[in-house]
Amino acid sequence: MQKIKYKYKFDDRYNPKFINGAIGGVSPQGEIIINFYLERTSLPITQTFDINKSTGIGQLSVTEPKDIENSFIRYIENGVVMNYKTAKEIHRWLGEHIKNLEKLDITK
Amino acid sequence: MDGTRLLNSTLLTMGLVVTSIPSNTVGATPLNTLASTVKYDGSIFTTRFLSQNSYSLDKLKFNKQKLKTYKNLKKKWDGYDGDEFDEDVIHIVECILSDLTIQPQVFPTSRGTIQIEKYFTDENFYEIEIGKDEIFAYIVTNEEEIEREVEIEELISLLSNLNV
Predict the structure, then answer these.
(1) Which of B15, B37, B46 has the CB atom closest to A105's CB atom?
(2) Domain boundaries of chain B, sorted by first residue
(3) A17-70 pLDDT tens trace
(4) A93 shares contact with chain B (CB less than 8 Å)
(5) Most B-contacting residue of A2, A99, A101, A108 (CB-CB within 10 A), to test interface
(6) What total of structural domains would you count in chain A?
(7) Within the 44-103 window of chain B, which residues sit less than 8 Å (CB to CB) from chain A?
(8) Is residue A81 assigned to a domain?
(9) B77 to each of B82, B92, B105, how far by Cα in Å?
């Protein structure tokens, strides 16, 4: 029987990332675009504290940026673009794995 | 096997292979237990090699358009005693078609059911009759012949690997 071998070649920078969301949709070319993001709370760029002559560093007086308390970061590092056919197959493949995961009996 | 090796082995194999660690191993964590129950199935490890006909958006749209026309067929649509098509039946068929890798041919029947069929070869084909209360399948593959009532999920699974 004839055989075919697929070789998996990894980019030197290959390093899977953790993501917890995606933003994207259908492109004008009819392809599907997915931009993966990691959503987290914002961190300040600078923080300024008052100095109390007797007790040293005192209360926080200024935080940059000012809207830090009502904003979140969605950090996008990676994205993919795929055609309908590939999207359908990835969707099926993912569904199989999700089903497999859901079948697990963790009480064993 | 010590704890660290056990954990590493589990992380490496999670989702891919069955670990050799019995579930009652002393010190086994829930993660280990999870990994030990994951069944490895090479066929779902990678996405499949698809033929040119796989997932044709044009053919899917064509079939959906056909189904849409069935909604307009009234009683005795075939000139005899043909039944109307229930919205639910049309919806079920639409769902099945969306999940199929290769689009079949779609036909209305006088019983108000919809038949989908695809012939690949004499030993590889299927005919499925979809009604409101029952899906009856006749599937012939190289390995087996199925002729019975099936559930939607099983049907998709049976058909999805036929001549991809």
Answers:
(1) B37
(2) 3-50, 57-160
(3) 999 999 999 999 999 999 999 999 999 999 999 998 888 888 999 999 999 989
(4) yes
(5) A108
(6) 1
(7) 44, 46-48, 50, 54-55, 57, 99, 101
(8) yes
(9) 6, 21, 20
Question: pLDDT tens-digit profile of B13-52?
Answer: 343 333 333 444 444 445 555 555 555 555 558 888 888 8
Residue A40 sits at the chain B interface (C-beta within 8 Å): no
A7 and chain B in contact, CB less than 8 A: no
Supply the range of the domain harboring residue A27.
Answer: 21-104
Is A89 within 8 Å of B47 when comparing Cβ atoms? yes
In a domain, A75, yes or no: yes
Q: What residue of B is the nearest CA neighbor of A96?
A: B44
Alpha-helix runs per DSSP H in B14-80: 30-37, 42-45, 57-70
pTM of the entire structure? 0.74
Query: What integer is the mean pLDDT of B60-82?
Result: 96
C-alpha R_g of chain A = 24
Complex ipTM over 0.90: no
CB of B104 closer than 8 Å to CB of B116? yes
> pLDDT: is B44 or B110 the higher one?
B110
Taking the C-alpha atoms of residue B91 and residue B101, their distance in angstroms, rounded to an integer, is 18
In a domain, A11, yes or no: no
And the tokens for A86? 């590939």
Q: Phi and psi at residue B163, in whole multiples of 5°?
A: 45, 50
Report, as an integer, the average pLDDT of B4-15: 42
Percent of chain B with pLDDT over 70: 71
**B contact test, residue of A89, A90, A93, A98 with most B CBs within 10 A:** A89
